[in-house]
Design a protein that fits this description.
The protein is mainly α. The chain has two domains: 203 residues, Orthogonal Bundle (Fumarase C, Chain B, domain 1), CATH 1.10.275.10; 291 residues, Fumarase C, Chain A, domain 2 (Up-down Bundle). It is 55% helix and 5% strand. The strands form four sheets. A three-stranded antiparallel β-sheet has the order 4-6-7.
């Protein structure tokens, strides 16, 4: 039984067994991002052999079976003679490897290969074990097929991306080897002990007819957003504290009036993160003239909580998809091979777009808090733009411009891809999901979110420095200390971009979150 690792070290060290049970999100991340090893279970090999026997029986007959004895897409009415059926499968892979544009990131390619491999091991595709073994070999040797940005409509599977992987697996494409050098896959496979591979009946179609690319990106997104939303709570707590905001609005009894679980979790995090703050305590008395804080402070748990609910919904869809066998036609246990529509990417495409909306809004409220920190008319006594000498120094003025530019881009990325459909294959495939496009823009959105949060952490840390001699809460003080080990505090203006990039790296690596959690324990 595979155990889901909890840290990057565990993820990298784990070996993922495919075929015993549906993969978890952590296991996909372990293989895709941290290069964990892969192996196929013996039960899965038995299932693959049984399915292959069914396909071979049908392939020797004159029965019309889509993709076995017929052409593909709009050519499904064309009967293929027995002698041409092997050529049909290899030709399919070559013709469908039609991607264009920039290369897709290695972690995405590795994720989609792993998920296609998992589908092979279900015994629903008819792929031989020797084909599956090539995917294992490529993953374990860190040889990544070259896949391009454009080519998937998110229906009939992620056809072009998967075709490029399949082409590499049979020794007829290109891979980046473990050194990052593009080489013919045949050379790399030969070094691994594999020769050229001729695909048998149905195998070409089974290699490409899945939603594995968009699902792989969904699993990576869920993983990253679970960390980002907790880091956003840390940034929000730092801003509330630096802006002399109140923690009273985050109490459990107030949250229980509107009992969304994610909202309660975020509010509880904020309460713990602000506990023990001299800064918060300094204005808690009856003489405090601020009746209530601005929405970007007061409503932080409502927004972050809604983001958590969206992530939870997306996680549920991902778990169902990870337990599915997406192929067309599909091999059934009773010996039938039946056409179906399970390759349609709508379930995944919708949640990818939903996550993009939540991602944009979480970044938007973060940027609003940063802007408030920089504005002396709203920051409760902090210097303009958190500069050492306002006027001579501009401080973090343009860092907020950078945030604003990214938030504007995030709003554009929140426009759904899944509402679009362009018919293809001579109108046989007349409604498609565009789920791959939804996944690609979500990846850009998550990158921008992490950058926006990094800038808020920088600004809030300066604000806390400037509240001295009042001490920050233990948790937020720990974050400031971690940041100061890499990024200097208030001083004369300096080249700002490297500071921003280092803060962003600390958000992406989990360093900011870890610093807070070391002080108050794991956040929800």
């Amino acid at each position: 039984m595979n155990q889901a690792p909890n840290s990057a070290v565990d993820l990298a060290a784990s070996t993922v067994t495919v075929g015993d049970a549906p993969l978890s999100i952590d296991q996909v991340v372990a293989v895709a991002r941290y290069r964990a090893g892969v192996q196929i279970s013996e039960d899965a090999r038995i299932a693959m052999r049984a399915a292959r026997s069914i396909v071979d029986d049908h392939a020797r007959s004159d029965r019309a079976i889509y993709g076995v004895s017929t052409g593909f897409g709009a050519l499904a009415t064309r009967k293929i003679d027995v002698e041409s059926r092997e050529r049909l499968q290899t030709g399919l892979i070559r013709s469908h490897a039609a991607g264009s544009g920039p290369e897709v990131e290695a972690e995405v390619v590795r994720a989609l290969m792993l998920l296609r491999l998992q589908t092979f091991t279900t015994g629903r595709t008819g792929v031989r074990a020797e084909v599956a073994d090539r995917y294992v070999a490529l993953l374990n040797s860190d040889a990544t097929p070259v896949v391009f940005e454009f080519g998937s409509l998110g229906c009939s599977g992620d056809l072009a991306p998967l075709a490029h992987c399949a082409l590499a697996a049979i020794g007829d494409g290109e891979v980046r080897d473990e050194r990052g050098i593009v080489r013919p896959s045949g050379e790399v496979l030969a070094e691994l002990g594999f020769g050229p591979l001729t695909l048998a009946a149905k195998e070409g179609l089974a290699l490409i007819n899945g939603t594995d690319g968009m699902l792989g990106m969904l699993t990576l997104a869920v993983h990253d957003l679970n960390r980002a939303v907790r880091t956003a709570d840390v940034a929000a707590a730092m801003s509330v504290e630096a802006l002399l905001g109140t923690d009273r609005v985050f109490t459990a009894d107030l949250q229980a009036v509107r009992p969304h679980p994610g909202q309660a979790a975020s509010a509880a995090n904020l309460t713990r993160l602000l506990a023990g703050s001299e800064i918060v305590a300094s204005h808690r008395g009856e003489d405090c003239s601020v009746v209530q804080d601005a929405y970007s402070l007061r409503c932080a748990p409502q927004v972050a909580g809604a983001v958590r609910s969206t992530i939870a919904h997306a996680t549920g869809i991902a778990d169902i998809e990870l337990a599915s066998a997406v192929d067309n036609p599909v091999v059934l246990p009773d010996g039938r091979i039946e056409s179906n529509g399970n390759f349609h990417g709508a379930p995944v495409g919708y949640v990818l777009d939903f996550l993009a909306i939540a991602t944009a809004d979480l970044a938007s409220i973060s940027e609003r808090r940063t802007d408030r920190l920089l504005d002396p008319s709203r920051s409760n006594g902090l210097p303009a733009f958190l500069a050492a000498t306002p006027g001579v120094d501009s401080g973090l003025m343009i860092a907020q411009y950078t945030q604003a530019a990214m938030v504007s881009e995030l709003k554009r990325l929140a426009s759904p891809a899944s509402v679009d459909s362009i018919p293809s294959s001579a109108m046989q495939e007349d409604h498609v999901s565009m789920g791959w496009s939804a996944a690609r823009k979500l990846r850009r959105a998550i990158d921008a979110l992490q950058r926006v949060i990094g800038i808020e952490v920088m600004a809030a840390a300066r604000g806390l420095d400037l509240r001295a001699p009042l001490a920050a809460a233990p948790a937020t003080a720990a974050v400031v200390a971690a940041l100061r080990a890499e990024v200097a505090g208030v001083g004369e203006d300096r080249y700002l971009s490297p500071d921003i990039e280092r803060a962003v790296e600390m958000v992406c690596a989990g360093t900011i979150l870890s610093a807070a959690e070391e002080a108050v324990g794991p956040l929800d």
